[in-house]
Amino acid sequence: MDMTQLGTATLGDDAFVEAFESCRLPAAQFHHADHIRLAWILLGKLSEQEATSRIEQAIRRFAAHNRVGQKYHQTITVAWMKLVAAARSASPQATRFEEFVALHPELLHVKNLERYFTRERLADPEARYRWVEPDICDLP
Fold first, then answer.
1. Do 50 and 57 meet the contact criterion of CB atoms below 8 Å apart?
2. Which of 16, 78, 116, 120 is the most exposed place for a label (fewest CB within 10 A)?
3. Spatial contact of 3 and 11, defined as CB atoms under 8 Å apart
4. CA atoms within a 13 Å half-sphere pointing along the CA-CB vector of 90
5. pLDDT tens digit sequence for 46-81
């Protein structure tokens, strides 16, 4: 994994979660790979439902704090959680995030959701505010 994709690589897992949830992490240091790492960490501690609820709240709070609340997208958030949960279940031997993404590099590609959703489906305003099912194929 290219560590420059992970703006929080120098932070341990607990410190990273705390910095993100308290909105102390600069927005410029939070990239897609950090979203995936946050999902991976939370899914290692909580049930999928609890982790999804917690990440939804944390991302909404972080976005609002950074005055970009309109960027939050419910369907995208839940879809990534489902993908990370399925990958995490498939590779319990990966005890470090770097090992996990080495086994599942597709998770680092933002466009990966295009395998499951058309652009039109994700652009639908309804998808931004509530979960909508994929329209290409089911998530794992």
1. no
2. 120
3. no
4. 11
5. 999 999 999 999 999 999 999 998 889 999 999 999
